[in-house]
Amino acid sequence: MKNTFKEALLFERLLDDNVRCDLCEHRCVILPAKGRADSSVFPNLKKENTGFCGTRINVEGTLYALNYGKVTSLAVDPVEKKPLYHFTPGKSLLSFGSFGCNFRCPNCQNWEISQTSSLVHSKPLVVGSIMDNFSEVSPAEIVNQAIENDCVGIAYTYNEPTISLEFVLDVMKMAKKAKLKNVWVTNGFFSSATWGEIAPYLDALNVDLKSFNQRFYQSHAKGKLSSVVANLLKIKETGIHLEITTLIIPNISSHPNMLRGIASFIKNKLGKTTPWHILSFAPEISWQMQDWRGTNEEEIKKAYEIAKEEGLKFVYSDLNGLANTICPHCKTVNIERRNYQIERFDENGGCFKCGQNLCIRE
Q1: What is the band of 3 on the pLDDT scale with cuts at 50, 70, 90?
Q2: CA-CA distance, 110 to 129, in Å (whole number)?
């Protein structure tokens, strides 16, 4: 029996069987392929029949998702690995992801699954072989695994969850009924329509704010900074828990003025207690930047100092000693972290010494 695809959410039918996908801010116009909505269409599939992410195909005027239930990665992770330091500290999440991405970052560390779409565009049959290699997982199986592993919730991660909306949304709805928390780890390039679908079921997000330079987003990620910023402001309005991550890539996203711009934006628009994670770049596991220099300790410390100078209360790094949650009032360590192992001293989210609110969501 042939692999049948799931009809996509959020698309608009246009003239001549073309469609416009409305999942993310690329808003791809996708030309129709001829055939049936199953794997028999693969030999005739061309680049113009898929979206930028490589997970959608237009078959005779209807858009279909190739990735429904296709899970490439599944693990029980500490919530700190997302990273989230002010959301249910010390608890576990069931993390899963599929394949493809709506960005093209050469520094990507999950490129073997996220950049599958690049292979799709050059070798269409790769899609078929990928889909044949993964068994379908149902939303109920994901939720049941989270419960069986004593997880507080589910993280939609490893690749961009936006482009798996059909499956992700089904899991989120079922998870919410089971009183599990829903966490997105995202590049923040989703559309307003996608945000409207997921917001009622979301509990927390970590958004990768890659730079504060529009040219960087265009050349490096093939996206738009303005769209990510607009979505961050929407998240702030809802009150859903938000943390920000920025990867410090030497000579690309490490300029002090750029980092100061991010820190100022977080403080003035998202709130000075919004956690900012400043992470090091490891070239050896990147997609296309193996010859680039890795981030050194001085660059991380400089970024940390800039964040503090700008007035951010909770700044974190992957350097030793900079992952602890420190009371912004009395400077006492309230949560100590070593390699995702944590020890908590806070009292119900308040500093155990002075009572200062540490802005922790349970």
Answers
A1: low
A2: 19
Question: Is the confidence at residue 277, as pLDDT, over 90?
Answer: yes
CATH code for the domain of 86: 3.20.20.70
Tracing tokens 């950049």 back to the chain, one arrives at: 115
Tokens in use for 283? 């070239």
In the chain, what is the straight-line distance between the N-terminal and C-terminal CA atoms, in Å?
A: 46
Q: Where do runs of H (alpha helix) occur along the chain?
A: 111-114, 116-122, 125-133, 139-148, 165-177, 192-198, 214-216, 225-238, 256-265, 297-309
Q: Give residue 56's domain range.
A: 6-65
- For residues 23 and 116, membership in a common domain is answered with no
Residue 1 lies in a domain: no
Same structural domain, 265 and 362: no
For residue 258, how many other CB atoms are within 10 A of its CB? Answer: 18
> 234 phi and psi, to 5 degrees?
-65, -45
Residue with tokens 């699954």: 113
| Number of folded domains that form the chain | 3
The answer to whether the bond into 83 is cis (omega within 30° of 0) is yes
CB 224 within 8 A of CB 217: yes
Read out DSSP for 223-278? S-HHHHHHHHHHHHHHT-EEEEEEEE-TTTS--HHHHHHHHHHIIIII-TTS-EEE
| pTM as predicted | 0.94
Tokens encoding 226: 């303005």
